[in-house]
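User: Is it possible to get a 3D structure for a protein together with its bound compound? The compound here is zinc ion. I've pasted both below.
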Amino acid sequence: MLNSKGVRFDGAGGGLPTLTADDLNAATSFCNPTGLNMLKVRICGDDSEAHTAFKSIYSDVQKIAKRWRSTEKEARIKALVQLAMFEANKTPVCPACKGRKFNRFHKPCTPCKATGKYIIKNSLRARALSVSHSTYTRIWERRLIEVLQLISDKENQALTQIRKKIGH
Ligand SMILES: [Zn+2]
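Assistant: Yes, that's possible. Here is the predicted structure of the complex:
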């Protein structure tokens, strides 16, 4: 049977509809491909989609990068996309306390300031982009924010489209 949005749901004896792979394919077929790839990586932990997601985000970022300095190295833009994907993807857990917020002496964990979260330092971001700390804060920080915003926009676009299709 087809619902009003044209997605198949085969009811299992009047209980909850059984969602088939076809339903999911139908629901996701017209949604933003970059957003869908990111969602697969982030929510489903499907790392096989990571390369595809990277390629489509990179091609979007290349368009944005035209507004930046035209001499920006391709390798650095790629590193920026990788960094942004890393920051958007991972549930960052503090490696020192493994998210427990306290160290083995039951004292608040210092590296994460007892948040349990992995705090990425700007010095690390600068190193990932092979730029100096001051160049990072002067130029690249807002670019990173721009790419993170792009990723979250694409994801939200895909989610809205999927929700509409499955009627939620
Ligand atoms: Zn910690």
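Residues 101 and 115 are 6 Å apart (CA to CA). Residues 1-13 have pLDDT under 50 and may be disordered.
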